[in-house]
Write a structure and sequence with these properties.
Blueprint (H helix, E strand, L loop, with lengths): L1 H5 L1 H24 L4 H22 L11
Helix pairs in contact: 2-3
């Protein structure tokens, strides 16, 4: 997508925000051992980490790999 290739600073801000928020939620949820709230926070943290990966890969999704 052309938008994410042109706005690299905004993309880096989103990636960093999703990454650190997701990591904090996973770690905090891990401390709530035996509680359903902790599991929910860890799942939400993993979703945010996957969102960071999605934003990172967005500019490259139109490119074809060699031999694919």
């Amino acid at each position: 997508m052309k938008f994410w290739k042109e706005h690299t600073g905004l993309r880096a801000l989103f990636i960093a925000g999703f990454f650190f928020a997701g990591l904090a939620l996973v770690i905090y949820g891990w401390t709530l051992t035996g509680q359903m709230k902790g599991l929910g926070l860890m799942i939400l943290g993993v979703i945010l980490l996957l969102a960071a990966l999605m934003v990172y890969n967005k500019p490259f999704e139109g490119d074809k790999g060699p031999g694919l």
